[in-house]
Amino acid sequence: MCIRESGRHWICDVCGQQIHRVSDAWVEWLADNNFYAYGFKLVHRKISSPLAGVEKCCSYDRHPNRMDLDLTDFLRFCGIENLVNNGAITGRINAHEEHGLRVREPGELNQFIMKIIIPNR
């Protein structure tokens, strides 16, 4: 998976700066006591973060219920890596329940995934 060469980019939910490469993107979220996921954020991987300090762009770093994966593994974990092909939508976004990611609000996950699939200009 790669981002389009058309000047598109992702925006980090913490620092607001551009994330240009998949290898620089990290997804973090929280899980409640019933292991339902919520609060999805796309952030810079620590090594790529423009912010100083230990936490860098990771907003949930010290939260005890923090979950995280790199962007590629997150899409694979949700069972939707096949939906993304160079930034184009190639399928439906409703596979999360079948692949083990239980979410509080499916609409929140769907909006987050759309943000990943269709980056900003």
Structure report:
There is one protein chain. The chain is an alpha+beta fold and 121 residues long. It has one domain. The protein has two helices and seven strands, in the order E-E-E-E-E-H-E-E-H. It has helices at residues 71-77, 106-117, and strands at residues 10-11, 18-19, 25-31, 37-44, 66-70, 84-85, 88-89. The strands form three sheets. Strands 4-3-5 form a three-stranded antiparallel beta sheet. Mean pLDDT is 77; it is low at 1-6 and 83-99.
Mean pLDDT: 77
| Number of helical stretches of at least 4 residues | 2
The main β sheet shows up as: 3 strands, antiparallel
Count of domain modules? 1
What is the CA–CA distance across the termini? 18 Å
Order of helices and strands: EEEEEHEEH
Name the overall outline.
globular
User: Structural class of the helices, strands and pairings?
Assistant: alpha+beta
Approximately how much helix is present in the residues?
Answer: 10-25%
Oligomer: single chain
Per DSSP, what share of the residues sits in E-state strands of 2 or more residues? 15-25%
Any low-confidence stretches, pLDDT <50, length ≥5?
Answer: 1-6, 83-99
- Strands of the largest sheet, in order across it? 4-3-5
Radius of gyration, rounded? 14 Å
Count every beta strand, where a strand is a DSSP E run of 2 or more residues: 7
